[in-house]
Amino acid sequence: MPIDLHTHSRASDGTDEPAEVIAAACAAGLDVVALTDHDTTAGWAQAGAEARRRGVALIPGAEISCQVGGIGVHMLAYLHDPDEPELLAEMERTREDRVARARRIVDRLARDYPLTYPDVLRQVDDRATVGRPHIADALIANGVVADREEAFATLLNSRSPYYLPHYAPDAGQVARLVRAAGGVPVIAHCRARHRGRVITDDDIRDLADDGMLGIEVDHRDHADAERSQLRALAKDLDLLVTGSSDYHGTGKLNRIGENTTAPDQLERLIALGTPQRVVW
Length: 280
Ligand code: AMP
Ligand code: ZN
Ligand code: FE
Ligand code: FE
Fold this sequence. Notes:
Blueprint: E1 3-4, H1 18-27, E2 32-38, H2 44-54, E3 57-68, E4 71-78, H3 85-110, H4 117-121, H5 132-141, H6 148-153, H7 171-180, E5 184-187, H8 201-209, E6 214-218, H9 224-236, E7 240-243, H10 263-272
Parallel strand pairs: 1-2, 2-3, 5-6, 6-7
Antiparallel strand pairs: 3-4, 4-5
Helix pairs in contact: 1-2
Bound molecules: adenosine monophosphate (AMP), zinc ion and fe (iii) ion (2 copies).
Zinc ion binds at residues 8, 13, 38, 248.
């Protein structure tokens, strides 16, 4: 029973429509897939309708941008109330600042490369969360780089002089808000060192105290040693262990279903959240 709990659609920076993510999950032989777009639940309706049509189970989710003492982290949220006002307000604040930040990154890049903000907007669907991958797509369209990989290897990574961060709420606060909204907070790829500084075991303990319920252990950005260490920590703290692809369509090398979650962990996750929100 293959289960993939982390994917992106065109509601954020994936390249598939939400329905196409479901179709890809189906083609890969998955039984359960979560849609976890950055800071939005805008893809839930379309993904849900397609999941019902195809007989794939959908766990509606989101990947919420957060920080722990200035270190950027991503909190996956599953089965939460998408209309809970406080959580929604934090996601809206992030989404708005992502637009301002993308404009500022483009201002910097425009000094050295042919690029305008409207070029970026052409790459973003209506209501979608703006991110660096859309800037990458505009750079590709303008012939500056060949693909998103090259853009992130050169101009867009966090060590680039063109890079700027965006607003992100405190991760402990987000864990509490997700719980209050009936959802299950799971920390995403927290040992992905190539993205920048990573949080400590003590930070993870603090997040668990705030209500975080799981650790995404099996992810392509984690080496084997990191996975074993995180698995032991999850056991110690009685946290869920998940695995997932972080699929972005053709925007990243990640293949849907390349990492998966064990059925007993999914069962626990659903019971800890709001089971009625699963689309069967
Ligand atoms: P942002 O949310 O705007 O800071 O952009 C980060 C997003 O860019 C993450 O969701 C990643 O999935 C994506 N990303 C990071 N590195 C790469 C890469 N090498 N190729 C494609 N996408 C990437
Ligand atoms: Zn992404
Ligand atoms: Fe992420
Ligand atoms: Fe992701």
